[in-house]
Structures are given as C-alpha cells and as structure tokens.
Please model this.
Amino acid sequence: MKKLKSKTKKKIILLLLAGIVIGLSRSPRKTGYILRSLPRALRDIDREYLYRCVKEFRYKKLVSYHENEDGTISLILSKEGERHALTYSLESLEIVKPLRWDKRWRIVLFDIPEKKRIARDTLREKLRDLGFYEFQHSVWIHPYPCEKEIEFIIEVFDIRPYVRFAEITNLTNDAELRLKYRLS
Model:
C-alpha cells in the first residue's frame, strides 16, 4: 500500500472515514462530537485543492462516486481507502494516562507466525511507540487502560487469532516497572 504524502490528503481520507463512523455509530453523543469537529477540519482545507484530491482519490480507487436520485453526489470510501484511513488513525493512536493508576497491569501476549512477520514486527514497533515495556520477547506490559487501542491494532493488522490481552492486579517483582512508569 503506497502512502499518501500530504497531511491534507490524510485529513481528507480521515474525514471520509468519519462519515462511515457516523453512519455506524449508535451513540448520539459520539455522533455529535464528530459532527462538531468536522467543520473545523473542513475549514482548513482549500476547496479547489479538496476537489483535486477527491479526483485523485477516485483515480487511485480510494473513493467512488454515487449519484443520488435528488442530484447530489455521495463519496464512498473504498476498501483500499479504508485501509489508508486506518493506517493514518494508527499513526495518531495514543494511550491516555489517567490521573490515578488503578494498580492493574495490561499485558499483550502474541505468537504471530512467520508468514505474518511484517504484522508482527509492526505490532512490536507500535507497542514500543505506545509506551509498552517488553517484559519478555512476545510479552509486553503497560500500566494504563488500553484495551480499545490494542483491539484497534489487532483489527488493522488482521492478527486476532495470534494476540491475547490480559489485565492483572498482582505482578511479582514489579518494582522495576513501577520505577519505569513513575508509579507509587
């Protein structure tokens, strides 16, 4: 998959993904939040450049047009476009540090086969970027809630059968980890 280089192009793809999320969202609160943030993001994009990008996306088969009965045109994000959008969402993914630690350790364990080596290596890199500590070769640990983030990564790389997530309250000899994360 060839990456788009322009930040504006990434933003446009993510805005199209936001449309999909709104369509699938059951929560009016989340839908409202997304709708409130969209106009700001759209305002930052030059209209002429937006139209050129959409034509380029159509040429690259990232989006497709659909003419509605009322004469309007709908842009539909293709599977390839969704993959691009998920990749950009993955780049900006981060774990939010709560005010207080709940004294639980989050552990990601995986045994990903050699045929999915790229996914395995990328998972390791992303866990490192998110602040995980490599406890053992395929065992990574983090002190803060991150299950949704891990689920997202697992879906993006299509590695669900090979990855496990655990939350534990008692870890022997965790003094080194507490020092690393500055926990009491």
